[in-house]
């Protein structure tokens, strides 16, 4: 049972970070020049910290739905 909890936590974390990457990649005016990977990584970290409450996949009737980051009425389910 403990292994399943660990696996779920890792999967949830991966989805949160993937959501953050997707959001940052879509922000207008963000063009990263060569050598600015550190800035991009720091922005990803900050974005996850500031938006962790909504960077998860919403579950509807036991099925994965859309990202809560695009769902204005997300209840955090």
Q: What structural keywords apply?
A:
77 residues; 2 helices; mainly alpha
- Label the structural class: mainly alpha
SSE string:
HHEE
Which geometry do the CA atoms define? Answer: elongated
Helix content: 40-55%
Strand order of the largest sheet: 1-2
Give Rg in angstroms: 14 Å
Please provide the count of β strands. 2
Tell me the distance between the termini: 22 Å
Strand content: 5-15%
Description:
This protein is mostly helical and 77 residues long. It has one domain (2-27, 40-70). 52% of the residues lie in helices and 12% in strands. Strands 1-2 form a two-stranded antiparallel ribbon. The chain is elongated, with a radius of gyration of 14 Å. It starts with a helix and ends in a 10-residue tail after the last strand. The model has no long low-confidence stretch (mean pLDDT 65).
In short:
By secondary structure, the protein is mainly alpha-helical.
């Amino acid at each position: 049972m403990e292994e399943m909890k660990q696996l779920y936590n890792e999967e949830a974390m991966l989805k949160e970070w993937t959501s953050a990457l997707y959001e940052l990649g879509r922000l207008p005016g963000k063009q990263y020049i060569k050598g600015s990977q550190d800035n991009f990584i720091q922005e990803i970290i900050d974005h996850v910290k500031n938006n962790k409450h909504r960077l998860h996949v919403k579950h509807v009737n036991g099925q994965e739905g859309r990202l809560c980051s695009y769902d204005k009425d997300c209840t955090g389910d």
